[in-house]
Structure formats: structure tokens, C-alpha cells
Specification:
single chain; mainly beta; globular; 14-stranded antiparallel beta sheet; two-stranded antiparallel ribbon
């Protein structure tokens, strides 16, 4: 892998030695919006032309799309340029992650990777670009790296100098302000049998609220409420989460209401290696959203950039009419619905710190340069053997330009099973009974106003859901 890293980028290790990392120099920050995009990606394409120049991303929906409906595929005529299989993967090994090579070896020929034309669709609102360029001049890691300061709204370090800065860019990337949706997760058996767990999600991103200042958000990134609506044995279970910025100084706050006992209890262990609820022990809590929470259990190394094939523009997985049965297959998803493209990614390696316990001794993250979204990750066991491979399949949403996941999977290579989240079609919302559920992202919202219905899958929230309290 080392020989494949972009030249001119040194591998950097940032531990927890005590010194804060300073903001970039004005001359470096001036590159943003010029040879670098406003979020820090290289504006130009690559030497071969396979990666095109970034030209603003997908900021306007395709013709015919209507607000409040599911995002349609902006590239319906695209066909795969070629397909990577177990038999031909050695031809492309320099542009494959170790995890994808292992998936091809283990699950081929049914697991294959259709490679499409690269479309640099990631885009964000102008105010996010403005804040990104401001953050570059002011943002700093706190002493020990467990938080940030002098930053707001979006990724703090568009010109990162360390692996830890890249991970904070992912954790704090812009995902909108007020978001609600219904989706289902499942953990298919080896034969493909599954029972979905359906949840309603309500997010308020305090860190990303327009006009907010870091000192005003009480060390909170977001507030989250989840309500389980199916199956009947779990229906009525509610989880409340206050996601904190510095989770070492002020750990994540979580409560869980169990419908069976009708008791609300604190959930002090909803972090790190704890099993993600309803994941059949196939995913840890800190794998939700590919990585979340305090980074203090690992030493982080920035390995540089690579050009690799990653999941991108997953509109076929996202589109109306795609049911869970169309997606779920034994051992992996239906790869005919996936789309992979060649993109530049930051490569970050995390190694477990001495004396710390976690089920993963080493992790490798592949982070999109255009959005700071983790696209692929690899998780290794305590013997150093590749154990799990995770993917985030993303699209650019239309109601407000935001690049975010539509579906996530974690593949357990030992168990031959996987966890999938983001199954949407076929689970109607309570307030719109009988209308099919789609994954429609509504990320804006009038601050202080009442919730507004915004199509069958998403709705606006008030700035802070009243059910969530600090006490």
C-alpha cells in the first residue's frame, strides 16, 4: 500500500501528546476555492482523466424531479464501464482496498463491483463553503485531540495535517440542520432470511445550525431520538442521544425507554465497542455512520491519498420501488444495484492504543476528498486479521445540496453475515398510512417553526425536539 500513496504526502501520526494543532497558514487557506474546492478537495482531475475536474457538484436536481418526492437518478443512461470480478481483480489491484479484494475472493462470483463513470456530485450550500474556508483559518484540535475549537457548522480542517483531523472532518461534516426519516435495518442469516427492524429517526444538528457559535451549543454536535415501530416485540422502544463534541470531558448522554417495562433508563455504555442495538453483534456502536464518538482509543495515522474504486452515486439502491427483498441476498447485498466509481480518498489508519480494550485492534478508513464522508472501512481483530468490511453508499440529496449515505453495510467475513441499514421502501409513516416510504432527505427548516411535512419520507423538525431534555 505504501507505494500507492500519493507522492509528496508524509505519513503523519498524531497521538495525544498534549499540544493543540494550529490552524493552517493564510497562504494555504487561500487555496480553498481556487486550486482546492471550498471543502479542501483537489479541484483538478487526475492525470488519466478518469477522475474529472470538480465543477461544483450536483447543485440542481434533474429535470422533472419534484420537491417532496424521492431523488431520481440524474444519470439514468450510465452503464458500467467494466465489472471487477474475482477472476480479473488482479488487473485492478492498485485501485482496490484490501477489504474489497477479500470480498471478491470470498464471495465471488456473486460479489462483483460494477465500475461506472466518475461523477463528482458532492455539493453543499454556499454558507457551508463559507464556513469551511473560515474554519481553515481558525480551527484547532483541543489538547489531546478529543475535541475541536474555533470551528462551527461543518468540517474543521479542509486542509488536514493529521489522521485525527481527517476523522474530525468526517464526524463534523455538514449533514443538514433538522432531519427526520424512517428506515429499517436487518441482519440477514447466511441463507438470506431476515426480519427488519424499523425505526423513526429525528436529528437536530446543533453544531450545524445557521448562526450558531461553538460556545452556544453546550458541547453538543446533535440531538437524536429514535423510536422503534417494528417488529411488535420491540415497538415503542425509544432512545435519546445527546452527541457531545468532547466526549472525554463530557461523555455522550443516552437514555433508553423500554416499552415492555415502561421504564426510562440511562444508557452509559452506548459507545465504543458496545454492540449496536439490533445488529446481532455484527456491528459496534462506534461504527454507526461508519465512525462516531471520541477518538481517544486509537492512534491515528494519515497515510496520504489514493485513487480507488468506492461506492458512489447509489441512486439505484435509493430509487422508488426498490424493496428490501430486491437488495438483500445471502452474505452480501445485490451487487447489480450498486455503483462504484474511481475517486481520490484520504487513507487513515487507526491502531489501538496500548492498554485500551476494543474488539478492533486496527481500522483503516477511506474518506472522500469531496465530502469528508467515510466511504469504506476495514476492521481487524486482535490477531491482526481482517474481520469486517464496511461500505457507505451515498447520494447527493436535492432539497438542499447534501452528500450523505442512503445505505450502509458491515460485512462480517468470519460469520458470513452482514448488517445493513437504510432499507426504506415499504415501511409507511404513521402520519401517512398507506403511502410507501421513500428515503427523502429534508435537511433545512425554518428555525422556530412547527414541524412541516415534506413528502412521504422526510419532514422538518423544530430546532430542538421538545422530547429531548438536558436533565
Amino acid at each position: 500500500m505504501r507505494s500507492q500513496i500519493s507522492t509528496g504526502l508524509l505519513a503523519m501520526l498524531f497521538g495525544f501528546s498534549g499540544a493543540a494543532m494550529s490552524a493552517v497558514q493564510p497562504s494555504e487557506a487561500a487555496r480553498l476555492g481556487n486550486d482546492l474546492t471550498p471543502v479542501g478537495a483537489e479541484r483538478s482531475g487526475n492525470a488519466s482523466g478518469a477522475i474529472p475536474e470538480w465543477q461544483g457538484g450536483l447543485r440542481q436536481p434533474p429535470q422533472g424531479w419534484k420537491s417532496g418526492t424521492i431523488e431520481t437518478d440524474p444519470f439514468p443512461e450510465d452503464e458500467p464501464l467494466f465489472v471487477i470480478t474475482r477472476d480479473n481483480m488482479d488487473l485492478y489491484k492498485s485501485k482496490l482496498t484490501d477489504g474489497h479484494r477479500r470480498m471478491l475472493e470470498k464471495y465471488g462470483p456473486d460479489f462483483f463491483m460494477p465500475i461506472y463513470q466518475t461523477r463528482r456530485t458532492a455539493a453543499f450550500p454556499d454558507i457551508v463553503y463559507k464556513k469551511s474556508m473560515e474554519n481553515a483559518r481558525t480551527a484547532e484540535l483541543l489538547e489531546n485531540g478529543n475535541g475541536v475549537r474555533n470551528t462551527i457548522m461543518t468540517s474543521p480542517f479542509p486542509i488536514p495535517k493529521s489522521g485525527l483531523e481527517v476523522i474530525w472532518n468526517h464526524i463534523l461534516r455538514y449533514r443538514g440542520q433538522e432531519v427526520a426519516f424512517r428506515s429499517a435495518s436487518a441482519t440477514p442469516q447466511v441463507d438470506g432470511a431476515y426480519n427488519p427492524v424499523v425505526n423513526d429517526y429525528e436529528y437536530f444538528f446543533a453544531y450545524s445550525k445557521k448562526g450558531a457559535e461553538l460556545q452556544d451549543i453546550d458541547n453538543k454536535i446533535f440531538y437524536l431520538k429514535t423510536n422503534t415501530v417494528a417488529p411488535s416485540t420491540l415497538a415503542g422502544t425509544i432512545t435519546l442521544v445527546h452527541e457531545t463534541l468532547d466526549q472525554v470531558r463530557s461523555p455522550r448522554l443516552a437514555w433508553r425507554y423500554d416499552a415492555g417495562s415502561r421504564r426510562l433508563r440511562r444508557s452509559p455504555n452506548l459507545a465504543y465497542e458496545t454492540d449496536l442495538p439490533n445488529s446481532s453483534s455484527l456491528r459496534s456502536v462506534d461504527q454507526k455512520d461508519m465512525y462516531n464518538g471520541a477518538p481517544n482509543q486509537y492512534n491515528w495515522t494519515l497515510k496520504g491519498k489514493r485513487e480507488i474504486y468506492v461506492p458512489y452515486n447509489a441512486y439505484r439502491l435509493h430509487e422508488a420501488g426498490v424493496r428490501p427483498a430486491d437488495v438483500i441476498r445471502p452474505q452480501h447485498v445485490n451487487q447489480a444495484l450498486t455503483r462504484y466509481e474511481l475517486h481520490r480518498v484520504w487513507v487513515v489508519e487507526a491502531k489501538l492504543r496500548t492498554g485500551i480494550s476494543h474488539i478492533y485492534s486496527r481500522r483503516v478508513f477511506y474518506v472522500d476528498e469531496d465530502s469528508w464522508q467515510i466511504l469504506v472501512s476495514e476492521e481487524y481483530d486482535d490477531a491482526g486479521k481482517l474481520w469486517r468490511v464496511s461500505e457507505a453508499h451515498n447520494i447527493s440529496y436535492y432539497s438542499e445540496p447534501v452528500f450523505w449515505t442512503t445505505m450502509e453495510m458491515t460485512y462480517d467475513l468470519k460469520a458470513g453475515r452482514y448488517y445493513i441499514d437504510g432499507l426504506d421502501e415499504g415501511f409507511p409513516l404513521r402520519f401517512q398510512s398507506g403511502i410507501p416510504q421513500h428515503r427523502i432527505l429534508r435537511v433545512g427548516g425554518a428555525s422556530g417553526g412547527p414541524p412541516l411535512r415534506a413528502g412521504p419520507g422526510r419532514l422538518y423538525l423544530p430546532p430542538r425536539p421538545a422530547i429531548i431534555h438536558d436533565d
